[in-house]
Amino acid sequence: MITCKECIEFLDDYIAGDVSPAALENFEKHLALCPPCRDFIESYRKTIEETRCACSEPDEQVGCDDVPPTLISAIIESRKLDREPDA
Ligand SMILES: [Zn+2]
Fold first, then answer.
1. Is the pTM of this model over 0.85?
2. What is the pLDDT along the chain (87 residues), one digit of tens a residue?
3. Separation of CA 23 and ligand 1 centre (Å)
């Protein structure tokens, strides 16, 4: 089990595209057991989305392509699916 600190550090690596499948699995396991980190990821994602909105101004399309918010959304969606009853 990784710590919350490692979870946040992983997020930075994740956004940089520098993570292994095993690290991603540990990250997802941590999120499954740690509501505060899930909340953090959710707010992080919202911040990214708001940043993208700000950057969608015609004159300000700089630097926003560095962040893959769809990947973070995918993690959050997978967590939501896990919480659904199986039957
Ligand atoms: Zn945590």
1. no
2. 899 999 888 888 887 888 899 999 999 999 999 999 999 888 887 887 787 766 665 554 445 455 566 767 777 777 766 655 655
3. 14
Looking up tokens 């919202």 gives 46
Residue 30 CA to ligand 1 center (angstroms) comes to 6
The DSSP line for 11-37 is HHHHHTT---HHHHHHHHHHHHH-HHH
Rounded to whole angstroms, how far apart are CA atoms 81 and 68? 21
Helix (H, G, I), strand (E, B) or coil at 67: coil
**CB of 44 within 8 A of CB of 11?**
yes
Residue 78 near residue 28, CB atoms below 8 Å: yes
Give me the count of residues in the chain.
87
